[in-house]
């Protein structure tokens, strides 16, 4: 019965979201294919041949001795060219340049745009029902909260997972059809594995958004927090050293076949379990009278406050302060106070305002 209700309520939004997911991956693959063909034409043009012949050492810097123009062209045109036989010498200055940058998704929806879409999609599933009082209707059906939560998560999450997987597979198929096989350097199983890796990565982002949609209840600050979570994720990823950024390759619609590193796999599993656990706890303990609170369950305020303040401060210290000469400056101190001030305002401003009003009433 619940599945039928969910479908009747949101079938057009489900179809629209599925089309956006599949279309974003497909268009990105098409754009990458067009980009590849433009590069192919350039590397076989008279202009490039003239530049190369004038200064071949500049182009072959970092390549093994004996490498030729054909080797250079083939390397730069090959997707997934991880650890090629002729490429870098040990301890080369270019030893960090596996061809990740070439795999960047261009087109109508960039990687960051896709991340934000999955965050907001997960957030909207529970948040909209809270604000439209649809939860009251569901609870009036004499169905347990745990059953409502479980079936709702299964229904929407399964659609998101399948749509994402289909989008990845279609993107892989577009590349296999439009780019000659000798430049793909990928087997069929690797292609499927890359699609699963990418799907699991974006599914984790969706679960994080879903957890935010269950925990947060403020009409304005709730959606605004999704923007903050997005920038927080971008901020954290920008601070990672190269040795860790390669694990983020699964954010591409085609992974670079580092695949899911054990560290990344552990993080994704922990994030999904924690996100669903927090969402279940919040949904089970949310009072409909607390509809407008920023954090719907009071017991979650302190953990979320610590995550926002301490977590952001640690990443800020690691990524910014540790790369500057002086830590004990007023500028850095201001940044830390700003982080803690924003965290305090978001989490506790309503509780503090209630206490202030109570104090004013007693005084008056």
Automatic annotation (TrEMBL):
Keywords per UniProt: Membrane, Transmembrane, Transmembrane helix
TM stretches of this protein: 111-132, 153-180, 192-217, 224-243, 263-283, 304-321, 333-353
Top-level taxonomic group: Bacteria
PANTHER family on file: ABC TRANSPORTER PERMEASE YTRC-RELATED
Protein name (Swiss-Prot/TrEMBL): ABC transporter permease
Species, as recorded: Enterococcus columbae DSM 7374 = ATCC 51263
